[in-house]
Specification:
Layout (H helix, E strand, L loop, with lengths): L5 H11 L16 E10 L5 E10 L2 E6 L7 E2 L4 E4 L1 E6 L18 H17 L2 E6 L5 H10 L6 E4 L11 H14 L3 E5 L14 H13 L3 E8 H9 L4 E7 L2 H10 L2 E3 L5 H7 L1 H4 L7 H24 L18 H9 L5 H7 L2 H6 L17 E4 L13 E6 L2 E5 L6
Parallel strand pairs: 1-4, 1-5, 6-7, 7-8, 9-10, 10-11, 11-12
Antiparallel strand pairs: 1-2, 2-3, 5-13, 13-14, 14-15
Length: 413
């Protein structure tokens, strides 16, 4: 079936099966002014304001203050923060009708509907923007959400990936140009093997330099899959934008990333845990072998001291999960693990999932904070995440671009 038929079918499904539990679907922000009050507001940049009000008009924040009087949405004791951002997901990955990640026997329509479901589940759990290091199929979903005809987080996508088999430096430059023309928002590069295969480097410095240099020339950022310290060092020396995973990074790699201002997205709280929790659904597909699972199980506890070393190095770490099948909507587990297992201060972890994540994606002037002029992406959680970071999984209100997608009543006390 042609690609242009997939999104209308997903939209039709949402229309005939509207969500329940206080969720609403609105294509455009309401006219006039909307105000939202909460017991505390975290602005995403490190400041906290008590009993504050956010004023919104035309989908953007107009004012943040502590006025009294009636408001459109009074969220009581909730904490209001910017819509959270996940800098690394695979929005189309899902468990298919066979319950497996291989998706055997699925039609293109079914795959599109699963991706639309992932987008919806991600949004109503407080993630209003994602960066999908994904596939060409992301494009229709991204564009439909941008048009306001399908509910989901704001999506940036690489629309594919490059690796050592893409070719020599000239071929890699050509690949970047091709992706730019196809509408990619950034370039994804595999510079090492999977953690299930040991994570050794797979690309040369010359290859990485060609890809990352051409991406800069095209106005694109680069995300580099690099499990080993050597691969992370090569990506950093090549002038790439962000290093992903880094399960085996060492002090040298961390120091270099910090000195060069490269972002580091270590993924310590969801992706490997999700694989292990859903092992029967992955086992036997590609390199999802018993040996591969042994690598992942071993890496879960060793990732935490690695993250602590990264904190000490002062490298900039936006929040990314590498969410795949089974992980969508659980993105906040990464933030929780960074605090509870990695020793990060709750406020810093929240900044990593808001303003720092926006900065890493080149969107700091549009999203990531509660400040006048920015998009009205607001999430309210039940409780105070500065005291209990688990609160981030208790989402009760979601607004994206001034449109309310979730507004649950306050829980009974």
């Amino acid at each position: 079936m042609r690609r242009f038929l997939l999104v209308p079918l997903a939209i039709a499904l949402m229309a005939v099966c509207p969500p329940s539990g206080g969720h609403t679907l609105l294509a455009q922000p309401p006219s006039g002014t909307v105000t939202v009050r909460a017991a505390r507001v975290l602005d995403g940049r490190g400041a906290t304001l008590q009993n504050a009000v956010i004023e919104i008009a035309g989908g953007r924040i107009v004012r943040v203050d502590q006025r009294s009087g009636p408001v459109t949405y009074d969220l009581g004791t909730a904490t209001l923060l910017p819509g959270m951002i996940d800098t690394h997901v695979h929005i189309g990955y899902h468990f298919g009708k066979d319950g497996r990640a291989s998706n055997e026997g699925e039609t293109a329509v079914e795959m599109a509907l699963f991706a639309a479901e992932n987008a919806w589940v991600t949004l109503i759990n407080g993630i209003t923007t994602v960066q999908s290091a994904g596939a060409l199929a992301d494009k229709d979903l991204r564009d439909a959400i941008n048009r306001g005809v399908l509910p989901g987080p704001r999506i940036l996508s690489s629309l594919g990936s490059a690796n050592e088999r893409t070719g020599d430096p000239a071929a890699l430059r050509a690949y970047v140009v091709k992706q730019k023309a196809a509408g990619a928002d950034f370039i994804k590069i595999f510079a090492s093997k999977s953690i299930r295969d040991g994570g050794a480097p797979t690309m040369t410095l010359e290859q990485l330099q060609a890809a990352c240099d051409e991406a800069k020339a095209q106005g694109l950022r680069t995300l580099v899959h690099a499990q080993s310290a050597e691969a992370a060092i090569l990506g950093t020396k090549a002038g790439c934008t962000q290093i992903e995973h880094g399960a085996f990074v060492n002090d040298e790699a961390l120091k270099l990333m910090a000195e060069k201002g490269v972002y580091f997205d270590p993924n310590i709280g969801l992706v490997l845990q999700n694989y292990v929790e859903n092992k029967p659904r992955f086992l036997g597909i590609g390199n999802y072998t018993e040996e591969g699972f042994a690598f992942m199980e071993k890496a879960i506890p060793t990732n935490y001291p690695m993250f602590k070393k990264a904190l000490a190095s002062k490298v900039r770490m936006p929040m990314g999960t590498d969410a795949v099948a089974g992980g969508h909507g659980q993105n906040a587990r990464e933030i929780i693990a960074r605090v509870k297992n990695g020793g990060q201060a709750p406020m810093d972890a929240i900044i990593g999932a808001t303003s720092l994540a926006a900065e890493s994606m080149g969107l700091a002037t549009r999203i990531g904070a509660l400040a006048p002029g920015l998009q009205a992406d607001l999430v309210a959680v039940d409780g105070n995440p500065l005291q209990d970071i688990e609160t981030l999984r208790r989402v009760r209100f979601v607004m994206k671009g001034g449109v309310v997608y979730r507004n649950d009543p306050a829980p009974a006390r």
